[in-house]
Write a structure and sequence with these properties.
CATH class: Mainly Beta
Number of helices: 1
CATH topology: Porin
Structural class: mainly beta
Largest sheet: 8 strands, antiparallel, barrel
CATH architecture: Beta Barrel
Order of helices and strands: HEEEEEEEE
Oligomer: single chain
Helix content: under 10%
Radius of gyration: 17 Å
Distance between the termini: 44 Å
Length: 173
């Protein structure tokens, strides 16, 4: 299956999920998130990541994300993050899984012929744990640790460790 068909299938699936219930409009939100650290659970090779959660229902989030990397490439894409049941004495540990479809642009560096920018369409899957840091007033702070697996349709899949700090702006209630 080529990348365009995969992206269309991804959007159709989530569109069906969004419109499945009568109160679907209440689940659209725009929550900004910034993360810094060694890779990202959302797009993989990001040193820092900027994303916006656009839809949340129960433990599921649909996000749009962009992020430059440590070494020149930049990523942009859309994905789904699922949080599992709380763990720990205070319920501040949440296992998660994440699926994303994104585009990665990078400089070919040593290529003297043709275009110097390389673009890869990728699928990423990640899993790990998210630790909620208590006592933050303006932002929810989480420490994420896990593994990210990416496939770019050109090369073999690769695996990256994920350790980052994520800041979510608290919603006004």
């Amino acid at each position: 299956m080529n990348c365009k068909k995969t992206i269309i299938l991804f959007f159709c699936t989530f569109t069906c999920l969004v419109f499945a219930k009568g109160n679907w409009k209440d689940n659209f939100i725009f929550e900004r998130t910034t993360s810094f650290g060694l890779m990202s659970e959302k797009l993989g090779t990001d040193f820092w990541n900027f994303s916006s959660t656009i839809y949340r229902k129960n433990n599921n989030e649909i996000f749009v994300s962009i992020g430059p990397s440590i070494a020149i490439p930049s990523n942009g894409g859309i994905g789904w993050k699922h949080y599992f049941n709380d763990r720990g004495d205070k319920g501040n540990i949440k296992p998660f899984s994440c699926l994303s479809i994104f585009s990665r642009n990078s400089n070919k560096m040593g290529n003297s012929s043709g275009d110097s920018i390389r673009e890869d369409n990728c699928i990423g899957v990640s899993g790990g744990i998210s630790y909620f840091v208590p006592k933050r007033q303006k932002r929810n702070t989480r420490i994420n640790a896990g593994v990210f697996i990416s496939y770019d349709f050109r090369n073999k899949p690769f695996i990256l460790p994920v350790i980052n700090v994520e800041f979510k702006k608290k919603n006004k209630e």
